[in-house]
Amino acid sequence: MERRVTEMSTSDPLRTVESGPSAQSLRPLAWYVLPPAAALSLLAVAWEAWTRLAGVPSYIIPSPSAVLGRLASDPGYFALHGAVTILEAAGGFLVGASVAVVMGVAMAHSRTVERTLFPIALLVKVTPVVAVAPLFVIWFGFGSGPKVLIAALITFFPVMVNTLVGLRSVSPGALDLLRSLDASDMEILVKLRAPSSLPYLFAAFRIAVPLSVIGAVVGEWFTGDRGLGSVIIVAHNNIDMPTLFSAVVSLAIIGVALTAILSYAERKALFWHDSFITS
């Protein structure tokens, strides 16, 4: 028996390597990375060919090679302003999500509170951020405060709505069981409602994280001497399209990176959920 096991394990080493944990972990990564990378490469090649063959001036639409050249010529410049934007977006996300979760918990436990607060939250949602950004500058000055508040304002509503829906989307049987055991509202919240709401919360975070970056950039348009939003405004005024597109590419990279980090955190936190068990 031992000889047979040894022969089977050594007869096909390629099969052993392919079925190892590293190969299994690389296949999903390649599945997610290669298709969009190929699509972006084809888009960049077509864009480059069009700008060269049509003779499009760089002050209208720069070629991808010009944008990459601008990024490569001064990566520290874009990294510094990108770090400022990330910090402002992260601060706004934390503030907006925290307030949204607190309000969602309060509304989930009281219909009266929901009828009182939800119209106010909806009013905040439908108010254009561009309209209130100048007011925030007047009220809170030209520092990072207005940008953080604008980012918080734009991320608040989706997190609040999903928190409310998630806290109420619990199993009726599990809820009746806890109530039959004379569990308090806090125990029901911690042991049942909060775990059940995690998939809804992460779905809201997927929307809110990119929105927080947008909010920070909008704030930088009105207040800024730092951040990628200010880089875009200055480049636009100087008709420096390679710098403007380089800032946009930097924002896209930031958005993809933050989304990837959030997806990793979601997979770690929701390893027990059906969507990850079956995947």
Question: What does it look like?
Answer:
There is one protein chain. It is built from 13 helices and no strands. With 279 residues, the chain is mainly alpha-helical. The chain folds into two domains: 45 residues, no CATH class; 215 residues, MetI-like fold (Orthogonal Bundle), CATH 1.10.3720. α5 packs across α12, α7 packs across α8 and α10 runs parallel beside α11. The protein is globular, with a radius of gyration of 25 Å. The N terminus is likely disordered.
In percent, how much strand structure appears in the residues? Answer: under 5%
Estimated helix fraction: over 70%
What about the largest sheet? none
CATH topology of the largest domain: MetI-like fold
- Under CATH at level 1, the class of the largest domain stands as Mainly Alpha
CATH superfamily of the largest domain: MetI-like
Number of domains: 2
User: What would you say the CATH architecture of the largest domain is?
Assistant: Orthogonal Bundle
Give the topology string: H per helix, E per strand: HHHHHHHHHHHHH
Number of helices: 13
Tell me the overall shape: globular
Count of β-strands: 0
Q: Report how far the terminal alpha carbons are from each other.
A: 36 Å
